[in-house]
Amino acid sequence: MKNVILTLGILLLMGACNEPKSKEEPLTEEKELALATEAAVSAERGKYLVNAMGCTDCHTPKKMTEHGPEPDPELFLSGHPSGEQLPPLDPSQVQGYLAFNMGLTAAIGPWGTSFAANLTPDETGIGSWTEEQFLIAIKEGKYKGMMNSRPLLPPMPWQQYRMLTDDDLKSVFKYLKTIKPIDNVVPSPIPPGA
Ligand code: HEC
Predict the structure, then answer these.
(1) What is the structure's pLDDT at 23?
(2) 63 CA → ligand 1 middle, Å
């Protein structure tokens, strides 16, 4: 009996976890079925992964709204805006904290200041990247997806995204190649104390 109750409890819990949390475009049953039966590598699956994994949190500049900053759909995944000046920051005031700009596209921490990359298929983004480069960037955490380049800086969570299968990463890349190209040269990171 105890076991039955436990099993029921677990099932209920699983049910609760499966409920779509986001108010935006919850997956319908048809959609879930389509995703499950579709080719292992597809832009549609990539779109689903990009939306669910929150790439836009850091990679899309925000518009200020009455609910606070929200991703600007016009600048979807175009990275930290090249012309944006960061407000001056007194390091002594943020000691023991990490700091983000309002758009969450720039982050300041012990690694210095990092700027979220342009993930659109423009030449200033990933337009000239190969699929292999994209896999190396995410799986090995390497800038521009080149083995001999510098490690990717925080807060890019590649250590988590590398857990995805190659097919899922290829799907993400395929989807990114379909979004609107945006010309934006993201600034280079600033070393600590500079
Ligand atoms: C918490 C913030 C954050 C999230 C979420 C995030 N990124 Fe990043 N990402 C960054 C930052 C910051 C950089 C730049 C790091 C650097 O310059 O070393 C970056 C860099 C990258 C790069 C390397 C670009 C280059 O020119 O080398 C790729 C590719 C990338 N991100 C893809 C993604 C994808 C795909 C997602 C979603 C699945 C994602 N990121 C989610 C912050 C984030």
Answers:
(1) 57
(2) 20
Amino acid, res. 70: E
Q: How far apart are CA 106 and CA 162, in angstroms?
A: 22
From 80, 128, 129, 152, mutation site for ligand 1 pocket: most ligand atoms within 8 A of C-beta: 152
Compute the average pLDDT of residues 99-109.
Answer: 95
Two tokens at 123?
């030449």
Query: Locate tokens 């995805």: which residue?
Result: 164
Alpha carbon distance, N-terminus to C-terminus of the chain: 65
Find out whether the beta carbon of 189 lies less than 6 Å from any atom of ligand 1: yes
The answer to whether the Cα torsion of 88, 94, 98, 100 is positive or negative is negative
With a CB cutoff of 8 Å and minimum separation 6, the contacts of 146 are 133, 136
**What tokens appear for 157 in the block?**
């969570």
Two tokens, residue 66: 């009455």
12 pLDDT more than 70: no
Give 34-57 pLDDT, tens digit per residue.
Answer: 777 667 899 999 999 999 999 999
Band of the pLDDT at 15, cuts 50, 70, 90? very low
**Nearest ligand 1 atom to alpha carbon 150:** 18
36/53 Cα distance (integer angstroms): 18
Rounded Cα gap, residues 94 and 110, in angstroms: 11
* Confidence band, pLDDT 50/70/90 cuts, at residue 59: very high
